[in-house]
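The instructor's notes for this session suggest beginning with a concrete chain rather than abstract definitions. Hand out the sequence below and ask the class to guess, before any prediction is shown, which regions might be ordered.
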Amino acid sequence: MICVNYDITELKQTEQEREKAEELDRLKSAFLANMSHEIRTPLNAIVGFSTLLVDSDDKEEQVEFAGIIQKNNELLLQLISDVLDLAKIEANTIEFNPVKIKLKEFLEDIVMSMRIKVPEGVTLYCSPNLEPYVFKFDQVRLTQLFSNFINNAIKHTEKGSIVLDYILHPDEIEFSVTDTGTGMSEEVREHVFDRFYKGNTFKQGTGLGLSICKSIVEQKKGKIGVDSELGKGSRFWFSLPR
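After discussion, reveal the predicted structure:
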């Protein structure tokens, strides 16, 4: 009897890396195919309603057209920002400039700035139990994290509330955005932080925002996740070391 043992650990690792690379290539291809639609949609609205704005003499129509143009400008800007951030993450050149942030006031400012985006019938507010705390972190990146969470909640919440909160733990701070929206299935929860993934292809967006949030949090040795039940809303959270 002759027995031959082979260590296939390296082979399995190579196979897993190849499968991961193939999946990433597939997702990138899907992303590029979707990009033309995502870019064309706001551009068509901007060009079309700009023409109508010039031709219209009705003040109410002009205000309505200007609002549509502004909304699509923001969508286009967000799209470009996400792509640029993805490029920085890929090149490992994303920058952090920590400053002292008064968290309670910071969340209140975010609510004030984003309340205009919230649809009628939905209330955006801070938890009434916020404990004042000064946290040293990059303010731009912390704003980006909350903005992406809130924008995601707005897409999926037609009535009820969106609540911003943070809880102080001994070694970390847990931030969260809780909504009363449509919630998610188990399959969507498993992939919601993947790059280029969109749980609902009919919703606007590139599927990059939550993935970028994950990269930011993990670079700072934090954790990120979501608790959700279909039809009962979602709670997106991330924790950062104190």
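Then share the key points. The CA atoms of residues 115 and 124 lie 6 Å apart. Helices lie at 9-55, 59-90, 103-114, 139-156, 186-191, 209-219.
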